[in-house]
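User: Please fill in residues for this 269-position structure.
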């Protein structure tokens, strides 16, 4: 009798989960039974590997398929499309259900589009040009010559946490920081990890990400959310799926695989 009751509870839970997932199909997506997800054009490492989101390789590609599964969509029911970053954050109708392109959730953007709950919190990371002989520790960081964009949250981290031996040089944008590094005027700069990875891979020849800080050590870190049309009824389903991924550890496992193991960026102690 007890076994029958236990089986009934399990069956009921399974039916509830299935019904909840099915509700994400009913009239809430652009194409019936399909989930259309947008990424960048091109999409970069380590968010999407080899510019091929359909492979499910790379942090955002892997999150997208795991999220779709939690929402009741099979991998074959995920449809990919491409948008530019600026195009996606404009108000109005979209040609996607979700867009995952390292969108920071900001108050200004949230007025014209909807965001999911965060699927990633970006830590601060140290960008250098060539890391031979450099250790990812505080003693090493204190001896480097730093450059920083004055308007970013990187400045107080450098001044208060790293407290370098010499005053950092101040710049007005990322491009000037990179040029200063190319010219040998500075040894290191602090960016959020996604920006540091992009600059090291695409912009700065010989660039390397020496290490990253724990997100909890960053003041007002960037939180990435899936972008949707304002008022999208799918948001509730996306948020519920993300909450489940956080609770069961699957989101953390994807982050560990693609943003820690794949990039090899150590935590600065």
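Assistant: Residues filled in for all 269 positions:
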């Amino acid at each position: 009798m007890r076994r029958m009751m236990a089986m009934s509870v399990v069956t009921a839970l399974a039916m509830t989960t299935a019904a909840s997932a099915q509700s994400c199909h009913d009239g809430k997506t652009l194409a019936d039974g399909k989930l259309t997800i947008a990424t960048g054009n091109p999409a970069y490492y380590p968010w999407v590997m080899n510019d091929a989101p359909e492979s499910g390789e790379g942090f955002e590609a892997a999150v997208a398929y795991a999220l779709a599964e939690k929402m009741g969509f099979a991998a074959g029911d995920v449809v990919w499309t491409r948008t530019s970053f600026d195009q996606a954050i404009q108000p109005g109708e979209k040609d996607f259900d979700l867009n995952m392109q390292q969108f920071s959730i900001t108050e200004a953007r949230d007025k014209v589009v909807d965001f999911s709950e965060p699927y990633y919190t970006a830590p601060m990371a140290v960008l250098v040009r060539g890391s031979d002989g450099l250790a990812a520790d505080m003693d090493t960081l204190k001896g480097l010559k730093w450059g920083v964009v004055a308007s970013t949250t990187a400045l107080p981290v450098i001044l208060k946490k790293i407290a370098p031996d010499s005053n950092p040089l101040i710049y007005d944008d990322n491009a000037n920081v990179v040029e200063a590094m190319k010219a040998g005027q500075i040894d290191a700069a602090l960016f959020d990890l996604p920006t540091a990875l992009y600059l090291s891979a695409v912009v700065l020849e010989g660039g390397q990400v020496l290490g990253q800080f724990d997100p909890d050590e960053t003041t007002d870190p960037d939180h990435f959310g899936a972008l949707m049309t304002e008022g999208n009824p799918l948001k509730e389903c996306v948020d519920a799926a993300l909450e489940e991924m956080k609770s069961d550890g699957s989101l953390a496992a994807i982050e560990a695989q693609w943003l820690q193991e794949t990039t090899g960026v150590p935590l600065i102690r």
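For context: Confidence is low (pLDDT under 50) at residues 1-19.
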